[in-house]
Amino acid sequence: MLSLHSAHHRAAPVAPQGAKIGLAIAGGGPIGGMYELGALRALDEALDGLDLTRLDCYVGVSSGAFLAAGLANRIDTAQMCRIFITGDSDDVQFRPQTFLRPALFEYMRRAASLPRLTLDWWRSMLPGAGGANEAHWSDLVARFGGLVPTGLFDNTEVERFLRDVFTRRGRSNDFRELERTLYVVAVDLDSGEAVRFGDAGWDDVPISRAVQASAALPGLYPPVEVLDKSGRTRHFVDGALRRTMHASVLLERGVDLLIGINPLVPFNSGGHQDGDGIEHRLAEGGLPAVLSQTFRTLLQSRMQVGLARYAQQYPDVDQLVFEPNAGDGELFFANAFGFAARRRVCELAYRNTLADLRARRDALRPMLAAHGITLRDEILDDAQRTLASGLATPPPRSTETTARLRRALDEAEHRAARKSQDAHR
Q1: CA atoms within 13 A on the CB side of 272
Q2: What is the dihedral of CA 284, 285, 286, 287, to 10 degrees?
Q3: Poorest-confidence range of 33-42, 92-101, 278-287?
Q4: What sign does the CA torsion over 67, 71, 77, 79 have?
Q5: What is the rounded distance in angstroms from the CA atom of residue 254 to the CA atom of residue 245?
Q6: Residue 182 phi/psi, 5° resolution?
Q7: Which of 10, 24, 312, 334 could bond 341 through an S-S bridge, CB–CB 3.0 to 4.6 Å?
């Protein structure tokens, strides 16, 4: 599903290097991240003149922060697909179990406080302690609530994985060293404030740490500790708690074209029937289905309100936001925190995005042309095309040295092409 807002007034067509393009990628857990990757891969193949690794600026939230940070580090969508989908990357070895290790230290730290809490509660029950008549079940829950871990899984491995990826082959784990502007958004747990890592005052935090904080979904991962400029420890959780995509971060930078991807939309079952003709309702899925639908509805409703406001505040900015179709049951019922279905979900997003571009190509063509981008009709009209079509030939294996050399040559070629284009303007 493509939400499209055309600029009210648009300047004369510009060369690709003159257009300011921003990319906002929302969260959605591991499965949401795989949907976003499939959508990005489709855009990469179908839009000529759009280099997703060389946009003006990026903002990523939660699982979207993984992808935004990768693109800003010039890891293209083909490489990401090889890392997360096909598994034939010669650079990064992705192991899903790394992201789903139980937070044993968190469990032990919480359990260590049990004797003290038990003693305090027992004392409050003694006659004459002034609390025997007040120790209700609600008091018991309040006292022992601190024993419940803040997260099921250990996210230190998430940071370690990203730190390894961003400190090799010419990439950087430092916001200040990137050629393109990157923002990663997380929420301060104690104040509810949204913080933009990569912005002034927060650009010294390693990118891997910022992504870890932005993806710390409460209940799944524990809050992430980060020192601020004053040396005070602050605890951060998932950036989606405040806004879905934080697209305003890019609009404030004066982009000409905003591209957004949001994988979380409410599911419309439409009285869906199974193979036996039996109609099922979401309530039959129990609490997980109800919570998932509620969460998705709140996020999309909030985002739609934001997009409508942005259209009023920034009328001269073209905006494209890609989302799943409301009837995509495969996406809704996939395990939101599992990786087993990642290839199917990525393929679904790839097909959906190509279908959106194909259906709206007449409206998209003049809009994209204003930013030096054209549609590749041969890609859009290929009914047999799949995610794997553009990944048929694995790249040659490379060492750290050859990878850095290839990166440098690619950059030199890009700069030479830009100078040639400037000379002909």
Answers
A1: 13
A2: -140
A3: 278-287
A4: negative
A5: 17
A6: -130, 130
A7: 334
Quick check: 417 pLDDT over 80? Answer: no
Integer Cα distance of 86 and 214 in angstroms: 26
The pLDDT of residue 244: 76
Alpha carbons 115 and 266: distance in angstroms, whole number: 44
Cβ neighbours of 393 (radius 10 Å): 6
| Residue 319 near residue 311, CB atoms below 8 Å | yes
- Residue 189 has, within 13 A of its CA and on its CB side, a CA count of 17
Which has the closest alpha carbon to 272: 282, 264, 283?
282
What is the phi/psi pair of residue 345, to 5°?
-70, -40
What is the 8-class DSSP label of residue 341?
T
Alpha-carbon distance values, 156 to 95, 146, 173, 214, 348 (Å): 14, 21, 16, 13, 31
Amino acid at 234: R
- The candidate with the shortest Cα–Cα distance to 307, out of 291, 292, 322, is 322
Q: Quick check: helix, strand or coil at residue 126?
A: coil
Ramachandran region of residue 46, left (φ > 0), alpha (ψ -120 to 50) or beta? alpha
Residue among 238, 242, 262 nearest 23 (CA): 262
Distance (Å, whole) CA 245 – CA 332: 19
Buried residues in 72-86 as b, exposed as e (16+ CB within 10 A): bbbbbbbbbbbbbbe
Q: Which two tokens stand for residue 370?
A: 């204003």
Give the pLDDT score at 389: 87
The C-alpha atoms of residue 217 and residue 160 are separated, in whole angstroms, by: 18
Q: Is the pLDDT of residue 50 over 80?
A: yes
Classify strands 57-61 and 318-322 as parallel, antiparallel or unpaired. unpaired
CB under 8 Å to 375, separation ≥6 — which residues? 46, 47, 48, 357, 361, 364, 365, 368
365 pLDDT more than 70: yes
pLDDT at residue 16, as a whole number: 47
SS3 of 57, please?
Answer: strand
* pLDDT of the residue at 167: 93
Dihedral sign computed on CA atoms, order 396, 49, 72, 320: negative
Top mean-pLDDT range of 13-22, 80-89, 147-156, 396-405: 80-89
